[in-house]
Amino acid sequence: MAVPHATPGQVLDVRPLGERLRESKTTALFKSRDLEVMRLVLAEGKSLPSHKVPGEITIHCLEGRLAIGLEGSTVPLEAGELVHLAGDAVHGVTALADATALVTVALKA
Description:
By secondary structure, this protein is an all-beta fold. It has no helices and nine strands. Strand 5 and strand 6 (73-78) form a beta hairpin.
């Protein structure tokens, strides 16, 4: 069953999950022709392996702490901080504490 995405003009709540974080899962919020937005949820110690996508990415840490592995270095990301990654940048994400992030991906046509 497909997960419903937000429609244009629909307001989404992306505030920190707090106590609900541990039982929440990563979800796609919307996808259009040019942009995809998802809420990434990672428990402390969990990670996404290194990967790349063609379009530019932003990762906005909403709560907790993340480590972004990027081209042989690690970029720490605290709640309220955002990092921009170029298209095709090989990157991975590890939660240093229970964390959620708003991830945007510019889709290449």
